[in-house]
Amino acid sequence: MKTLSVVIPNYNNSKYLSRCIDSVLAQDYPLSGIVIYDDCSTDDSRTILAEYAARYPVIRLILPDTNRGVSVARDTAIRSCTSEYATTLDADDYYYDSGKLSREMARINDSPVPACAFSQTVPVDEDGNTYCDITLRDLQHNFRFRTVTQTIGVYVARDICFPIEAYKAVGGFVHDMKLYEDWDLSLKLLSRCPFYFSGGYGTAYRQKSGGLSDVSQKKIVSAKIRAFRQGGEYLHYTVPERIVFYARTYIHAVIDAYVARRNRKRAGRSD
Questions:
Q1: Which of 240, 92, 109 shows the shortest CA–CA distance to 158?
Q2: Helix (H, G, I), strand (E, B), or coil: what is residue 154?
Q3: Which of 179, 127, 129 is nearest to 16 (CA)?
């Protein structure tokens, strides 16, 4: 049975920390460690983390003196793990049920080669409540094409379990990336490992203000293209994958820009 660590990067998420950590502690797969990197939070996160670390020896804290950003936090914590596999979980998210990791690791343990495993993401609102259809989908079908082209939708593979050796081989998280850094990593890992769908639910991904929806379309498009090109250095894209990715990226940007202008005009009239 492969060993596994969970990495949690945190910055000012004290409001959500307990639910996040409790969902990891409730997992029925034995963990080598829970590594929590607090990126110099200014709220009471470190007080909460100290209490958890005192109660649960499996928790190890990394407490730097300088804020470095989420990609550095994840990368530093992952590279500090002594387990064979790792997975990440943002501090404002949580695992939807206690079998998330065991289902994923079952697929990995059955694989004849080092592999990655993922589950269906469950979108939740700021209060942690589901707000859209969460019927279980067949995400294994055409997974590579749907991942490369970003056509997998809101159920995109998040917080995958991956071999640390493969993570290091592809360079891990890019330190200066603030958007789509997890997609960038998945693209690179696809070049080295098969990806298996666990057949169940995974991370409850919290949609809240200050997230991707508040980022300008220009930055989103730029970040997508950068991640796509970086992934292409490891994963040789097919012609259809390239066409669909660029077409979707620019069409969505035009549509979103139009909707934003229309909403601004309506807001102006309402004033």
A1: 92
A2: helix
A3: 127
Kindly state the DSSP code that residue 130 receives in the 8-state scheme: B
Give me the residues of the chain with pLDDT under 70, please. Answer: 209-214, 260, 263-264, 267-271
Q: Which strand ranges, in their side-by-side order, compose the sheet holding 59-62?
A: 59-62, 33-38, 4-10, 85-88, 162-163
What three-state secondary structure class fits 42? coil
- Largest Cα separation within the chain, whole Å, is 63
Query: Tokens 């920390």 sit at which residue?
Result: 17
> Cα–Cα distance between 223 and 243 in angstroms, integer?
18
SS3 content of the chain, % helix, strand, coil (to 5): 45, 20, 40
Distance from first CA to last CA of the chain, Å, rounded? Answer: 62
- What digits encode the pLDDT tens for the residues 39-85? 999 999 999 999 999 999 999 999 999 999 999 999 999 999 999 99
Q: How far apart are CA 53 and CA 200, in angstroms?
A: 30
CB-side neighbour CA atoms (13 Å) of 177: 23
Say which DSSP state 176 is in. Answer: T
The pTM score is 0.90
Q: At what angle do helices 14-25 and 45-55 cross, to 10 degrees?
A: 20
